Prior knowledge:
eight-stranded parallel beta barrel; TIM Barrel; globular
Amino acid sequence: MKEQDYDRELARIIDHTLLKTDTSKEDFDRVCEEAKKYHFRSVCVFSGDVEYVAGKLKGSDVIPIAVVGFPHGQMTPVAKAFEAHDAISNRGAQEIDMVINVSALKSKHYILVLEDIQQVVKACEGKPVKVIIETALLTEAEKICACCLAKTAGARFIKTSTGKEEGGATVEDVRLMREVVGDEVLIKASGGINTSEFAHELIEAGADRIGTSHSVELVTGKTAEGGY
């Protein structure tokens, strides 16, 4: 494929994602090669896999990202912060995508949610933290609250979804998130983004980053089925 045959602008804001339990070394190799070929922003994997991925991406313009507390986020803040610190300090992660404690948010334990995010942000020592609020499980009021808490806690990004729950990113949710956080916090849309048209709609609504396992299809104008 010639370089001009794909959407280079879209590619540079895609987090190329591989978050399957049965992933093999060959899968990681393939995803890293795809990311380097199309110049995606990053490769996003579990924290236990990020060291290998960081090694494969060394010397390229693609960064390694680790998810933390994924996919449910309901461990203690100390445990979540430790996972984030280990991924950043010892395993080469350059950004962290953390899942909030959705149960605590829905129970109105807002101090716990705030402290959870703050501890991860502190553990990352200046590296960008994206806070996954799992929009599909939240009411509009809860989405607003989650965005406010993440912004107050110092998150660099707010992210729509893990892609593991029924329902993913929507244009309406991205617009709402942008209205709540303004221009001070970036937004990552993820979950169910299977076409370049949808990706561009989300960007138009306010998304700064796109998370998908269908990155190659998106930048080459194909339609993907299933997956994150």
